[in-house]
Write a structure and sequence with these properties.
Elements: H1 3-15, H2 17-37, H3 44-52, H4 61-66
């Protein structure tokens, strides 16, 4: 992989809604598979409810981003990091 390829990816993910939504959907599907394989079963609403019961900041940056990928089918609903791209 090259820096140029990374730049092209960033351009595409910020300018191409269909591409971005496809990646978000695939990440959400993969996350669900990983969580299920680890022995857990819940939906987005249940995850949001469980997160709401925690003290602010308790998840931290790394586990927090893992819980923030969401795609409603309309517009992007997930949280955004400083770069606004990954989650």
């Amino acid at each position: 992989m090259s820096v140029q390829s990374a730049k092209e990816f960033l351009e595409k993910i910020t300018s191409d809604d269909a591409f971005r939504h496809s990646l978000i959907s695939e990440l959400a599907r993969f996350r669900t598979e990983l969580v299920t394989q680890a022995g857990f079963e819940f939906n987005e609403r249940e995850l949001d409810e469980a997160r709401a019961s925690l003290s602010p900041g308790v998840l931290g940056q790394v586990p927090g981003w893992f819980c923030d990928v969401e795609e409603s089918g309309k517009s992007y609903q997930g949280r955004k990091c400083g770069g606004g791209l990954w989650h």
